[in-house]
Amino acid sequence: MEFLTSREELRGLYKATHERAIQKELPVLDQHARGFIRKSPFLLIGSSDGNGNADVTPRGDRPGFVAVLDDRTIAIPDRPGNNRLDTLENIVAEPSVGLLFLIPNMNETLRLNGHARITADTNLRERLAVDGKLPTTVVVVQVRSVYMHCAKAFLRSNLWAPETWPARSEMPTLGEILKDQIAFAATAAETDEALADAYAKTLW
Predict the structure, then answer these.
(1) Could you give all domains of the chain from N- to C-terminal order, each with its CATH number?
(2) 42 pairs with which residues across the strands?
(3) Nearest Cα to 199, choosing from 183, 175, 180?
(4) In the chain, % of residues over pLDDT 70
(5) DSSP strand E in the chain: where?
(6) How far apart are CA 157 and CA 27, in angstroms?
(7) Which pLDDT value is given to residue 184?
(8) I need a labelling partner for 68 at 20 to 30 A (CA). Which of 12, 81, 121, 175 fits?
């Protein structure tokens, strides 16, 4: 198998970029980007450690959980997780990030690229609290570019079409997966029960 090694080789296989696809990229958050972020309950963060190791992690909460601080700045609360801190440690090492915002049942997405920093500022954490529970830290992203992404990937995948979804029973539970992957003393059922308890008690 041969691989492409230059931009020229790559570009030679594709049509020229449509002018509209270039013009849609903005340096600030306009009213449409702000509105999309306010309605989005879910996003993906792409980051890297600067040494060639990349990572993508999900962030989800009630719609509007990401705060728009101004037309060039957003704030993402860090809710309780597994404390691997993959994204946060990457940001400390290399602040460039790429974000993809989703809204359920909407095929278009919002892409945002920027420069991220992490703060434990009390006022900002209090602003982003849920039921009195403050995030441990907040990721503040300075916008470099933002634009809407077309619907083709979602149309091809039928992502929001329930009739195309596989039955959950066709996949093993997380407890079953972890039991096979890691030498846990606990049974798969015990792991699933512990996970359900953690989900119920530590979402925020």
Answers:
(1) 17-157 (2.30.110.10), 166-201 (no CATH)
(2) 60, 102
(3) 175
(4) 100
(5) 42-48, 54-60, 67-70, 73-78, 96-102, 109-119, 137-149
(6) 30
(7) 80
(8) 81
